[in-house]
Specification:
- This protein has a single domain, classed as Up-down Bundle (Four Helix Bundle (Hemerythrin (Met), subunit A)), CATH 1.20.120.
- The protein is elongated.
- The protein is about 80% helix and about 0% strand.
- The chain is built from five helices and no strands.
- It is mostly helical.
- Helix 2 (about 25-50) runs antiparallel to helix 3, helix 2 (about 25-50) packs antiparallel against helix 5 (about 90-120) and helix 4 runs antiparallel to helix 5 (about 90-120).
Length: about 120
Amino acid sequence: MIRVTNTPIEGIDYEAGLAQYQMERIYHRILGSYLKSVPGILDSLAQQQNDDLEGYITTVHGLKGASYGVQANYIGELAQELEFAGKSGNLDFIRQNNQGLIDETNELLARLKVYLDAQG
């Protein structure tokens, strides 16, 4: 997994996002939606990892899709690994790596917030 760092937002392939959405204004709006919705997903991941494996798989799948959708590919890859671990019943992998996913995603969200706030 390679993190993209040569963009306005470390951890997001900004150029690919612009190519995908074709208008910076639209892409920024989608990034803003990601910024607002993902903290709730992370809260669910923290709660579900020990209690509800099916719910966890569904939630981490949603994070994967949302992350790939905004070109936060590193987070998407981490989420995908945890989704596959859940589907294979590898609870040890989930317990060892779930907090890392949450931490990495929170760091990305912090950088994204700074960037979007600076854009006005």
